[in-house]
Each structure stands twice: as C-alpha cells, then as structure tokens.
Amino acid sequence: MGAAKAKGADRGSAIDAPAVPYDEMRDADGAVRPQYASLAARIETLSADELAERQRTLERFFLLQGITFTVYGAESTTERIIPTDLLPRIISAEEWKIIEAGLIQRLKALNMFLADIYSSQQILMDGVVPRDLVLNAPSYQREMQNLFVPHSAYANVCGSDLIRQPNGEFAVLEDNLRVPSGVSYMLANREASKRVFPGTFRGAGVRPIDRYPDLLLTTLKSMAADWRPNPQVVVLTPGVYNSAYFEHAYLARLMGVPLVEGRDLVVHDNMVYMRTTTGLRRIDVIYRRVDDDFIDPLTFRRDSGLGSAGLFNAYRAGNVVICNAPGTGVADDKAVYAYVPAIIRYYLGEDAILPNIETFLCREPAQLSHVLANLDKFVVKAVGASGGYGMLVGPHSTKAQQDEFAAALTADPNNYIAQPTIQLSTGPCLIGDEIDSRHVDLRPFILSGEKIVVTPGALTRVALRKGSLVVNSSQGGGSKDTWVLTDRKDLQP
Amino acid sequence: MLLAVRHSTRYLYDQPVRESVMELWMQPQKLSHQRLISFELEIEPAAQLFSYADTFGNAVYHFDIPQPHDRLTITARSAVETEPPPALPDGLDRGEWDRLKSDFVRGEHFDFLHPHGFAGPTAALAAFVAEKNLDELRVRDPFRALLDLNRAIYDAFAYEAGVTRADSPIDDVLKARGGVCQDFAHVMIAICREWGIPARYVSGYLFTDRKAGDRSDPDATHAWVEVFLPSLRWVGFDPTNNIIAAERHIACAVGRDYSDVPPSRGVYKGEAESELAVGVTVRKARAAVSEPEFLRISQPTPKPGQRRAQYSGLAYDQQRQQQQ
User: Fold this and answer.
1) Are residues B272 and B256 in the same domain?
2) pLDDT in tens, A334-377
3) With an 8 Å Cβ cutoff, are A131 and B110 in contact?
4) B139 plus B238 within the same structural domain
C-alpha cells in the first residue's frame, strides 16, 4: 500500500482521483451525519468487549444458519462463512429517493434496449450503440430474436453495483442482469443486525426488506401466461457445488417453491415438467440460477448437464418462462455499459439520474493508447469476466502485473475496458476490537415484471483489507447490513 | 424440374436410451424458384412433431421420445419443383466492391460477414490464400472473382469422403487437400467474408448429374454457399462441383455455418454407443422413388480427451451427419 501512496504524487491530471474518499458517517468537519446519529451514540456507550461480544453473536448467527459461500481456486476449505461486519451502513431517505428513481429509470431503459436488439434493432440502425459491439458479444443470443417476452421484462432480477464518489454522488459501476446473487446476504444481514442492535434498529425507522421474497414470487408469477391462473414457479440451481447454492435454497424456501436441478426436469411435447414422488408436474416459471450457456444442451452448450434438453424450445413456444430471459447479459456487458447513458436518452429522452463511471473502451485505438500509458492509474477489466476475476487495479499492482495486462490489452483490445481508480466511500467497520474505516459499495436489488420495484435495502460490500478497493466476496470482501431510513415526513404523527 | 427427395436417418443404440430430443433442418425452403409441393416427416418410434422458424428463417422441426428405445429413424420425404434462377451476367462493374461496403449491406447481412464457428480465418487459410494467390482475384469484379474462387477451391481439393468429419475445422481439409462439400463450403465462406462479401452456408440436396461432371456423392445431403451481391441479390456457388447453384439444387436451410443448420441434431440420456446411418435419394418426380439403402455406417471413434461423463444424468450429444 505504501508504494501506491508514493505513486499518487505523480498521477496524471486527466485521471486524477481525489485523495479523500467520501466518509459515510462523518462530514468533512468530522461531525456525525444525521442518519448515523443514533448508531454513533449507541457505539459510544459500548466497550470494546461488548462490541466483540456482539460481533461473536453475529458470526454465530451466520454459522447456525449455514450461510456460506465458496471461493474458487482457494486451497483451504471450500465453504466459508462470509465475513460480516457488525456496524450497519445507513442511507438517508433523501439519498434513497435518488437511488431508487435512478435504478428504475436504468432498468426500464435496459429492458427496452434488450427488447429492441432482439427485434427491430432500431438503436443499432441509428448508430447509437455500435452494431458489432452488440451482435458480436458472446452474450448476445440469436435464439432470443423476435421472441415474445411478457411485459418486455427481460431482466426480472437485477443487482446493480453502485459506488459513492468523493463528491458524495452515487454512480453505477456495473449492472448485473444475468443471474445476480447476494440478495440472501441482504436478508440474512438484516436478521443478524436486528439481533445485535435491537434498540437502535427499532428507534432508527429502518424501512423493512422482508417483503423481498414475496415481491420476487409476485414478479415471477406476473411473467406466466394469463391462462395459467396458478402458475407453478421453481428455482433452478446448478447444484450443491455452486458458490451460491445456499442462496438458491434460501430463496426457494422463503418463496415456498420447489428447488430443482436440471436432472429433475423433463421436457415432453414442448412442455416442461418436474419429476415428483407423485409423478410429473407441469412448470410455468423457472427462476433459473444457471448461466445461459448451460440451461439447454440442445440449444446452447451441448456438454451441459445442468439444464434440460428442449427447455428453450418450450420457452420459445410460450409454454414456460425462463427468468431472467436468456441473452440479458449483452446489456450488462462492460463495454455496452459505457453506452448506458446514451441508451437511457435514446429510449426515455431523459438524462441518467445515476451517472456512469468514466469508461475507456480499449477497442478504440486512441483510448487504448491512453490506457496503456497510464496502466498504473486505471482499473482494467475484462469485458466478459465478473466477480473481480480478470481485473487489474493499477495503483495496487506490480510492474509485472501491469506488463502482463499490457500484453493482453494489445493482443485483444476488444476484450477490455478501463476506468479511473475510484475512491469508494468509506464506512465504519469493526476491525479487531477497534472501529476503523473501510471502503464500501452498494448492491441494491431491482425486480421487474409487470412493474419495476426496488427493495429499500441493499447488500453493502466491504473491502476488509485496509486500503483495498476490491469488495467482491471472491476476493476477500465482506458485507454488512444496509439501513434505508424512513422519510420522517411519511410517518403518521 | 420436378424432384422427389427421400432422406432417411437412422440411429441405432447398443443399449436402450431415453429422453431423446431432436431438432431437424430438413424441410426444403419455399422460394420463388423453388416451390415446395409436399413435405412429410415420419418418426419411429412415433413422436409429436413441433416446429418453429429459427433466426435465419429456416423451418425447424423438433420432437422428443421419452420412453426407452434402441433405434430412432427419421424419414423426410419431399417433392419440389425448381426453376432455373434468373440469368446471370458475365460480370459486373468493379463499383460492386463499393456497393458491398455500404452501411446498409454491412448492417443487413452482419451475421454473414463475420467469422462464426467453422467458417473463420485461420493461419492455414491465410497460407492457402497466399499459396493460390487468391487475393489477386479481387482485381476483377466481385462476381468474376467469385467464379474464379469457386473454381480455385474445386481445383485445389479432392472430393474424398472419410478424410474429414461433421465437426472438422477447416484446417483439416486445408491440410489434407481433400474433403467433402461441407468443408469446401466453409473454406469458401471464410474467404468471402474476409473479402467483405456476405456469404452463408446452404444445407440441402443435389440432383446429381454425373455426365455434367458432378463429383459429390448422390446418396448424401449436400451443402454449398450463397453470397450476397447488391446487384444480383443472393447467388449460389457450389465449389464441390464448380457450378452455380441452379435447378438441380434443393435448398433446405441457410446459416452462418454447418453448426447452425445440421440436418439433425439432438441429445439423449443413457449409457450407449450410437451408430448413425444416412441415405438420400433424389429422383426426377413421377418416376417411382425407390427405397434408399443405408449406405454408410459411421462408427463413432471417441476423440482423445473427450470422455463421457461418469454419471447417467447427463444428456449426450447425438452424432451429426456430415454433408457431402
């Protein structure tokens, strides 16, 4: 980290990252922000031992609930408890109003974009988004062309990654429209924080999030055909070895619907059934947590054992609904991301409420040379990768890593984008037995079916290593509860 | 020309398999110069047939057979009346190259201008193009250049079954300098796309005329290439036989390459070796269409490194028929 600070002195002017990140709890003068007042007051009264005791209570809760995840490539145990921080992150009602409006606007536009690129492709004809960027993306599924998608809701479940910039403004870092995960942690963190700060929680006026499973089920059912009055919904999981298996089981349980694997499904005469102890039962809606490529070996990857052969043809015929729709990944592609503000303007005639992070497309030669000249300052990401894999954080990288990326960028520029290193905001965390600041981001969850709904809460991810800007759980990040406060004006006197 | 086609496909399994799911690209297209008179599909064991139009507008039929079975036969019978395509000029002006560069052409035919699967640039293809000086053909107008390219591929490769397989990359045919129509079509498509000419793979049948010098196998499905020239629209080139596709060609489906439009593809569940046999007869209609014999038994040779999964829940990729 010391090396990174030394380098900070000679940063180029074009991509200067302000030195001081936004502090979630305290303003520039060190005064506690109003939304944190009650929590700050409560912490003052607790000794280090009492804080540690609460942290242990929290961890015990997760252990007993079996809330674990898998780190791919790690040598030790495969199942870990996600590191969870004791202190909630708090968002005021005013801030949330902007976030909510921005997310709804964004998902509305992205669903319109998907409907367009899978039908008449007006936006490509008009040259707003380069045609080859969309049509040559591996995530663009030609099978989806001209298919009817109810309510044009392609991305039924969306998890967007927001960060707060040094000026205090929230910006979108990434849209996740494929099979976003993490919502179970949002729900579990809330259960845990109610136990460790019961009084503060009750007094603060935190908006509830426990309707999420109901809203998810309603969204999924709204995708079923009208003539199926009581649609059968299932959650399709790749199986117990998947890193998010816990979440799949958790959501199925909370919604009260069956959890199935590909081998439990059978497609016959263009209908999808699940095998049950009492025979086959017809399925109407599949909330699939299996990637596009693996859902149907007949249509997509032929070596996949995770899906069911013929599933896509049943979907095409309208006999089952797959949520999220296949092919949504093209709209959260990291290169398409750069065009989202233009996409919002094109379909809605509005400016984006939540801004983007400045993004350099390495496919453009001029931008590529700028990125290559400043590799130590940029965050470089592979377009197709997610979860913090295939990524270079310039200021925290070695010369060898930079050389490796320079070679990769030159060899395959289309596959990379670069963004200036953004100082994520920081929030208070309990580290050891002291309270210290760590960088955080924000992943709210948006549901879209008949209508678009944002749950007033989020997963706040924490980079637990001091100074680190990488919050992904697969890269040593943790999480914490997120309190969205009720607008006092909305409360009954 | 009135033509009747009978196309039989038979899968035999050494153990019963179940939950076979299959898709077929076997119905002749309905075109201005190709009238589809009748089309019938017979599946044994019996199955309910469904259909849809794929991205490229092809008619796809699909079905599933849930119960255990140790054989599966598909018989497609069609009758087609073909007409010679509109007369073609001897050549075009060189301005056709510029018309190919228009945004409209490049947008409309995007999928047929970019590499896909088998039909893409490789080092071996570049070496072949250099060796035969193929890029020099482009000093002529696109139509004459394509006629020359068609002949160059015909001359460079021997027609030889068994050298390549249904899933062979073009490097195999470039190395062996021998192969079947599928391989030649992929080589030509890859070069056309490098030249900026939209090119697509056509799967279908050929009423073979040995006297006219046809060398493709009369008892197999056929494949050739269609290219888009703004002045002429789609024109079919058949590099296997060094001819322009005309009334003896019956087109079933078009795609970016073979993998978009195999005559049949499917998966099944069960631990079994499968054996695929295909027979095709194309006859002038009103003459009796005789029963075709199953001519070629292709024995699957497991590819190195491609092991079957150990557990039985997995669906196995069904063998696909090569187009010859």
Assistant:
1) no
2) 899 999 999 999 999 999 999 999 999 998 899 999 999 999 88
3) yes
4) yes
